[in-house]
Each structure stands twice: as C-alpha cells, then as structure tokens.
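sorry for the late reply, my laptop died twice this morning and i had to redo everyting from scratch. anyway the thing you sent over, i finally got around to it. pasting the sequence first so we're on the same page, its 183 residues, then the predicted structure underneath. double check i copied it right bc i was rushing
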Amino acid sequence: MVIKSVKISFALFVILSSYYSFFKNHNEDIGLEIPFAKIINGELKIIQDTTLLKEKLKENISFDKPIHFNSVEIVKQKTLGDLQEEYYFVLIRDNHSKVRIARWLNLIGDALYFNNKTNQNDSFEQTYLICVGKSDCYPEVFVFDNQRNWGCSKDPKCIIDPEKRDNLDCDTYKTILISELKY
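ok and here's the structure:
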C-alpha cells in the first residue's frame, strides 16, 4: 500500500514538474515574466500596477501637450483582413487629449503577457501603437499574407495610404521601448 502511494506521488510529481517546466520554458522562450492580466471567471482582470505603466509611457514617449492617462483596460477583439481571430491588447487612454495607446498581449492559459523578447524579423508584439484623434481613431490589427499590422482605423488603406490616413483626423505612431526588451 505504501509503495503504491509512493508511486502515485512520484507520478504526480513528474507530471506536475513536466507541466511547470513546459510552461516556464515556453514563457521564457517568448520573453515572458509575470502576467499583466488574467482571465478570472470569464472577466479580464489587470493584476499589475498600471500606474507604473502609465509613468513609463509618459517618460518614454514625447507628446505635444501634457498627458493624463485616465484609463487602462484589456480589450478583446478580432483581427481584420485575411484572418479573423480573437486577440487581446492593453489600451491606455487620455480621453481629453484623445490619445489611445495599445500593445499586444499573448494569451497563455488564463494569463495575458507582454512579449519583451527581441525578434529582428518581427517586432509587432513589442510595438506600442499610438492613435491620436476622434472616436473612430481606434487600435485595430490587420492580418495580410500572414503578417500582423497595427492600424488606427477599420479601413486597411490607412496602413498603406498616407492620404487616406490624413483624411481621417487620426494620427498614427508606432514605437518600441528599448528599455523593456530582452536579448
């Protein structure tokens, strides 16, 4: 009886260790550390200090006027273009200045992570999208030819046509904060 109990305990230990090792290594492979948010009972809950995120953005991104971010939220929506799939991003807003900043979040299990690992071929997940303009100037992700691209409108022409973008009253900027990256 004792041997059977030891075998079961050992088997559970091996299974749990393998599970932990897989997710730990998978998270490390894409530069993940601590989750930014979690899905708890179907609700998106931010579990990190958003004040630090807002301060970091103010310190590292130049704005024409003072910025006072009044909300940080997790948004779930569908990509546009060749592929319609659900994705998550963090959205930081200053409603007075009409500034919206977005960054992709990876869903692993029930946790949402930033990917801070550098990739010279594709920096999409490390990019902050900044949309400045009226209400329809809102972060969107387009998928064309298996490439994801940020845009600030549901119209894909805004990504490639500067004239179309100018007519929207929506300024679009993209940046990567080097201090966040892991090599």
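The first helix runs from residue 2 to 29.
thats about all i looked at so far, will dig more tmrw
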